[in-house]
Amino acid sequence: MPHDIALAGLDLPETAVLGSAEATGVPLPPAIADARPIRRAHYVAGRLCARRALARLGIDHMPSRRDDATADWPEGYAGSISHTAGYAVAVAARRAAYASLGIDVEQPLSAALEADLAPLVLTPAERDRFARHDVVHLVTLAFSIKEAVFKALWPLTRVRFEPEDVELIELGAQGAVTVRLVRSLDRRWTAGACLPGLWRRDVARCLCLAWVARETWMMRSDAAR
Ligand SMILES: CC(C)(COP(=O)(O)OP(=O)(O)OC[C@H]1O[C@@H](n2cnc3c(N)ncnc32)[C@H](O)[C@@H]1OP(=O)(O)O)[C@@H](O)C(=O)NCCC(=O)NCCS
User: Taking 80 as the threshold, does the pLDDT of residue 181 lie above it?
Assistant: First the structure.
């Protein structure tokens, strides 16, 4: 994990009791207030993680929810939230160093489900590239890193894309990941652009992080002029 990205996570035993906004002081936007208890609990847990991650950067703030469903990070900060059964997590960083962050957490899929979903999640090139690597939970990992990349790029592009539009090109040592765009999203984010990331996996979950360094963002903005 880059030292200047703050991460905070919450396990379900803690989040299970977070059903009501009154109990936690987390304001619920209308779309969440009307949702099922588990969704409200996940929202609250994500917001508590976001506040903790920001606190590690020295700022006291709880992001609200924007109209496009993203979290409203404070001026000068970027961040991302994810939740799955049993766990919520958030990352935050100063925009002086990062233009955007994306985090995703998934429960590992069964081998049978991975086999069914492989054609939807992995491109033919990815299947060839990793065929001999025998990566456990490759489909879960690829889906998760693509979701993390989507979350990092959405605030910068507002362009939706699908799993076949990004490719995992490298799974390095220490969980380093490189992902490449297969198609152009806009003038800055053209086909071939690469993003770095990280992944961590244990028996319970797969966690992926992608980021756009401010330097990269400036370079791409200059090149698009
Ligand atoms: C928006 C999306 C990324 C959310 O992912 P998810 O796995 O369903 O849910 P997660 O728990 O990981 O993340 C949810 C959080 O992401 C954040 N989020 C929502 N929309 C977002 C967006 N467009 N960009 C970045 N972050 C977003 C929110 O903070 C949300 O939590 P909250 O509603 O409690 O505040 C997903 O639903 C989606 O639309 N993906 C794009 C299409 C796709 O699947 N492409 C494949 C990968 S390329």
Answer: yes
User: Which residue CA neighbors atom 42 of ligand 1 most closely?
Assistant: 162
Rounded to the nearest 10 degrees, how much is the dihedral formed by the CA atoms of 225, 191, 217, 162? Answer: 130
Whole-number pLDDT of residue 18:
59
Choose one of 32, 81, 89 to mutate for the ligand 1 pocket test, by most ligand atoms within 8 angstroms of C-beta.
Answer: 81
Domain-terminating residue out of 67, 96, 125:
96
**79 CA from centroid of ligand 1 (Å):** 13
Angle (nearest 5°) at CA 15 between 9 and 204 = 60
* pLDDT (tens digit per residue) in 38-61: 888 889 999 999 999 999 999 999
Identify whether residues 63 and 41 lie together within a single domain: yes
Give the H or E element holding residue 157: helix 138-157
In sequence order, what are the beta bridge partners of 7?
91
Confidence class for position 204, pLDDT limits 50, 70, 90: confident
pTM of the predicted protein model: 0.95
Structural domain includes residue 104? no
Instruction: Say yes or no to pLDDT of 140 above 60.
Output: yes
Domain residue limits at 128: 110-200+210-224
Asked if residues 87 and 65 have their Cβ atoms less than 8 Å apart, the reply is no
- The separation between CA 86 and the C-alpha centre of its own chain, rounded to angstroms, equals 17
